[in-house]
Design brief:
Elements lengths: L2 H31 L10 H12 L10 H7 L2 H21 L12 H8 L3 H10 L1 E2 L4 E2 L10 H13 L3
Helix pairs in contact: 4-7, 6-7
Bound molecules: heme C.
Heme C (HEC) binds next to helix 4, helix 6, strand 2 and helix 7.
Length: 163
């Protein structure tokens, strides 16, 4: 080997080392910045969630879950829950404090003349609206997103607590 060949080989070696350094640098950047193979940036939190999802066990053993307990509660109780939640979300605005002439929740004297009409009439008035002596009951309490079943459950809930 003469000097010229040694110099050429040495230059090639340096160039190769520089190339390897650049590759390592780029890979390190990708790993630490959380770039995935699609080139989308992900936060560390997302990465951890994705990893947890990928390595999660196939099955899970749940001891004493609330789901199992609620399955044991009879259907009648579930209907009462619908009535209660509908009452709280919509009807309570007027019937809770008993404002604008609405019979107050739990007030037996106020509910007696209404209950006397019978459930079918109360359903009809709650669903389609009703103007009586005391004021105006808006159809579905003004919440048209409610299903008829929800409204009827709320009527039963209020009637049950007004007897
Ligand atoms: C904006 C106020 C308001 C809201 C909200 C409201 N009500 Fe009423 N409701 C009234 C008023 C006022 C009356 C009394 C009307 C009368 O007798 O003059 C009434 C009366 C009733 C009656 C008795 C009807 C009758 O024929 O005697 C029922 C049943 C009833 N509401 C059910 C409901 C249900 C169920 C909801 C919720 C989905 C609801 N109300 C939400 C104001 C309201």
């Amino acid at each position: 080997m003469n000097d010229r060949k040694v110099f050429k080989a040495f230059t090639a070696l340096v160039a190769a080392l520089v190339a390897v350094t650049v590759v390592i640098f780029v890979v390190a950047q990708m790993v630490t910045s959380g770039l995935n193979m699609n080139g989308h940036k992900q936060s560390m939190v997302q990465n951890q969630a994705a990893i947890a999802a990928r390595i999660q066990p196939v099955g899970e053993v749940t001891v004493g879950s609330t789901l199992a307990v609620s399955n044991l509660i009879p259907a009648a109780n579930a209907a009462d829950n619908v009535g209660k939640s509908t009452f709280q979300s919509t009807c309570m605005a007027c019937h809770g404090p008993g404002i604008a002439g609405a019979p107050k929740f739990g007030d037996k004297a106020a509910w007696a003349p209404h209950i006397a009409k019978g459930l079918p009439t109360l359903y009809k008035h709650a669903l389609h609206g009703f103007t009586g002596k005391a004021g105006t009951m808006p159809a579905k309490g003004g919440n048209m997103a409610l299903s008829n079943a929800d409204v009827e459950a709320a009527v039963r809930y209020m009637v049950a607590h007004g007897k």
